[in-house]
Amino acid sequence: MELPKLDEKQRAGVKALDRELLGLYGTAEGRPLRSLTLRQLVTEAEGRGMLGPGGEKARDSKGKKSKRAWVDLLRPVMVAEVRAAKIREQQEEMLREQLVKELEQEKEQEQKQRVVELIQTLMKRSEGSDCGEPEDDDATISQESDSKVDKTHRYLEALVKSVCIPRETQQDVAMD
Q1: What are the Acidic residues biased-composition ranges (predicted)?
Q2: What is the value of pTM for the model shown?
Q3: Which of 33, 88, 92, 131 has the highest Cβ tally under 10 A?
Q4: Domain locations in the chain?
């Protein structure tokens, strides 16, 4: 079984809110992006591999180091991380639902098989029970027992057919 994939429309519907953009590294762990200090923002950028020690720094329009420039640099990366995590969670949920559905179908098949086996053993017993009884000279009694056995067989066959019919077919028949 393969991991179900979200289509493009479902992927586009996955949004990352500002409050979900949380720090992962150092003292910023679990804190929202907007409330991080300049030092924590630099640590976050280094932790994500965006710049090495002594690398290029985020600067504002005037060329100064600023908290706002670091936030603008980190936001797209953090949004992509959060969206990827949400998409993965949705795909895992779809997989769980698929597995539950498959397990229910297997369980239903096992139950049907048990019912069929039970009915078959009952039919064999009912056929065998006629042989064990002493023969009566009265013809009406033997005809009555034969008709009872026939009715039992017909009932059990109808039961087997109704149990073995897939659900969709039963619903279609019920709607007609």
Answers
A1: 130-139
A2: 0.56
A3: 33
A4: 8-175
